[in-house]
DNA sequence: CACGTATATACCTACTGGGGTATATACAGC
DNA sequence: GCTGTATATACCCCAGTAGGTATATACGTG
């Protein structure tokens, strides 16, 4: 599957992306931090690279990978039509929490 | 694969969700508007239902499906750490989507 | 140049998951 | 009841893909 959605369906790939979100890293660093085998990391990185999620900078024998945001922006854009449900949901949750609070004054609502 | 990301990896499921985003629909309506076979629609709807993306209201023999936003909110939340990359690349997304669109027509050879 | 390190790739295997056809179930109207 | 409609499910088949092991490639250092 070549869509951005197919790419991030894989948990290990999401984990890689999440790590790279905070800072760029080498293959080795990813391998250790995610406790995956090196070929597995490389394979996932290749998929991510080809799909435009990451790019690599060469540093001697190392490849330092970093995020390229475009495909994730595409996912973000796809979510747009659904965002109108967010507010409704949040409102419903707030009303719910208000009722809870009124019914049991003194008890702290969670979340 | 049971994560929300795995669920929306499937293009037909995304199409179903996108249709439901504007309004609730019956299985038949989805079947026609997406030109899919009925069992296929039902199967995808079952996956979506079990993962909490949709719910069905019974109307005689019909089931009217509608969006439940929670799993998509989860996806939205996952994107949060990456949003700091957005601003720098706003117009890069346009170029990216143009390229995607160009790559569409015809089946491309694989690697 | 030999050796260790860092990364990529090839190859095989096993599993999953989607498509299709046929069938079951549920309901409505006559 | 019988018939048509609406939806779900069972079953089979096949392609894609992730994991693992072994190997290739590239680079740096002594």
Number of discrete helical segments of chain A:
6
Q: Ranges of chain A with pLDDT <50 over ≥5 residues?
A: 106-111
Rg over alpha carbons of chain A = 20 Å
**Structure class of chain A:** alpha+beta
What general outline of chain A do the C-alpha atoms trace?
Answer: elongated
Question: Largest chain-chain contact?
Answer: A-B, 32 and 33 residues
Question: How many DSSP E strands of chain A?
Answer: 3
Which percent band covers the strand fraction of chain A? 5-15%
Question: Quaternary state, please?
Answer: homodimer
**Proportion in helices of chain A:** 55-70%
Biggest beta sheet attributes of chain A:
3 strands, antiparallel
- From N to C, what is the helix and strand string of chain A? HHEHHEEHH
The separation of the N and C termini of chain A measures: 37 Å
Q: What strand line-up does the widest sheet of chain A have? A: 1-3-2
Please tell me the overall pLDDT of chain A. 88
